[in-house]
Amino acid sequence: MEAFVSALLNGVLLGLAYGLAAIGLNLIWGVMKVINLSHGAFIALGMFASYFLFHSFGLSPFVSVILVLALGLVVGMVAYFIALHRVISAPELSTLLSTYSLSLIIIGVGTFVFTTNPRAIDVGLGSLHVLGTYIPAAKVLTGVYSLIFTVLLYIFLYKTWTGKAIRAVSMNRVAAEFMGVNTTFILSLSFGIGIALAMVAGALIASVFPFTILSGGVYELKSFVICVLGGLGSPLGALVGGLVLGLLENVLTLKMSVGYVPFIEFLILVVILLVKPSGLLGKE
Amino acid sequence: MSEVVLKVENLETGYGEVQILWDVSIEVKRGQLTTIIGSNGSGKTTLLRAITGVIPVWSGRILFEGEDITRVPAYRRTEMGLVMVPEGRMLFPEMTVLENLEMGAYNKRARSRMKESLEFVLELFPRLKERLHQKAGTMSGGEQQMVALGRGLMASPKLLILDEPSLGLAPKLVIEVFEIIKRLREQGITMLLVEQNVHLSLMLTDWAYVMAEGRIVMEGTGAELERSDEVRKAYLGV
After folding, report:
1. Per-residue confidence of chain B (238 residues) as pLDDT tens digits?
2. Fewest 10 Å CB contacts: which of A54, A180, B163, B204?
């Protein structure tokens, strides 16, 4: 029973972090119709940013996450103008290739600089006693922070002028331009926010699990599964999808080897695509 | 009253290698309703795309309130007061009616006046009042056209461009749209109308241009054009 409660709690907390990573991917798809194949690379970059800030400046990941967010925003907006701006209206293959090359460059340079040795951030916050079971405090904070960032994004998208402009661009780019929205800026901002969320998710997850520069790939795949599960273009769906995946991962491993988890995840992906391709909360 | 708001001078443009517009010049005067009529493929839509800045201009100039805006990006033109109500309405379907109207007032000039604009729009379209929190995509075509017009008015336009506002509407709603255009004209709102419904447009308009094969082939008051044999034959079917 205790193991089950522990698995549930772990599942929810990690699921929130997976959801956050997936929301970044989802936002970029929703606004720009770009499938961001560099998402995992940026998640890994977020892990290393957090690692560097922790070991060089002694900043806890739960403080430095704000810096990672700002860094991600800037890097993402610059990356938009370098890699995407000229091909944004081209067929999907161009943006796929473009973001894939971005990924290759980041992973390539990252491997050269950081090697592929595993790293870890030991925040040393101990464990919390919750519902009769012990959960690492870092994991609790990771879940709580992810939820906060998700809520903040939601408020931003629905309550501010800029957020509404992002939603308008996602629905009709030309009409948004007619409203006086600088759509080029909004597209770069959306990519910046998507990348920032990926890096923040990476930074938070890095406080829980060890990682290498290649770790992003795993979370990128999870993000894809989550987006399909929850429905592309639905931020709430991404959150729900994240929770489902987090719970599956933790509850299933009570009974089976960890090695089977990706198999189950992709089985779900295939089943959803066959049965309800628009996702659990998707439209149409 | 006869001050020129929009002046298009010797405009030429097209897509890729294909030239669509040939030496097009038009003027829109303040407080007036100016109409462009022409059959499908005559270049009306291309002309509006050039005026709103969605496609680049090859040669010629576009002046708005005396200022050369030929190279000004589309979103800045809206900020300056050149506001487009696009063909097909182009609402934001997942936003509520209220959010759509608010997006109309996105530009800095309009934002500060949003409350008054909203009152004005809701007075013009009382039916939208009870629909404010409904998603725009779930409304009927006629209601969507009202939202589109309302959204354009929210932008505090100095020139309101209406691209085929009656397209795809039932005859009763077409009359309704023209009633609204008439009321807006009485309010002194400067408008540039592009319409397929030649008869109703010519009845209302102060000045009209006829386009064919990418050129302006005729211009005059609504009454003059309606009497002209060519227009009657080509567009009115009589």
Report:
1. 469 999 999 999 999 999 999 999 999 999 999 999 988 889 999 999 999 999 999 999 999 999 999 999 999 999 999 999 999 999 999 999 999 999 999 999 999 999 999 999 999 999 999 999 999 999 999 999 999 999 999 999 999 999 999 988 999 999 999 999 999 999 999 999 999 888 899 999 999 999 999 999 999 999 999 888 888 877 766 5
2. B204
Side chain identity, residue A45:
L
> Which residues in chain A have their CB less than 8 angstroms from residue B92's CB?
167-168, 171-172, 175-176
- Chain A residues whose CB is inside 8 A of the B86 CB are 174-175, 178
Q: What is the CATH number of the domain that holds A133?
A: 1.10.3470
Q: Is A115 on the interface with B (CB under 8 A)?
A: no
Query: Are the Cβ atoms of B95 and A168 closer than 8 angstroms?
Result: yes
> Which residues lie closer than 8 Å to A74 by C-beta, 6 or more apart?
A192
Q: Which domains does chain B have, with CATH numbers?
A: 1-81+161-166+189-238 (3.40.50.300)
Q: Tell me whether residues A178 and B99 touch, CB distance under 8 A.
A: no
Query: Which chain A residue lies closest to B77 (C-alpha atoms)?
Result: A180
**Taking CB atoms and an 8 Å cutoff, what residues of chain B touch A177?**
54, 74-75, 78
Q: What residue numbers bound the domain in which A199 lies?
A: 2-115+126-275
Per the domain annotation, does A280 fall within a domain? no
Which token pair is B127? 């039916």
A171 touches chain B (CB under 8 A): yes
Helix, strand, coil shares of chain B, percent, nearest 5, are 40, 25, 30
Helix A216-230 / helix A235-252 crossing angle, nearest 10 deg: 120
What is the domain count for chain A? 1
Residue A174 touches chain B, beta carbons under 8 Å? yes
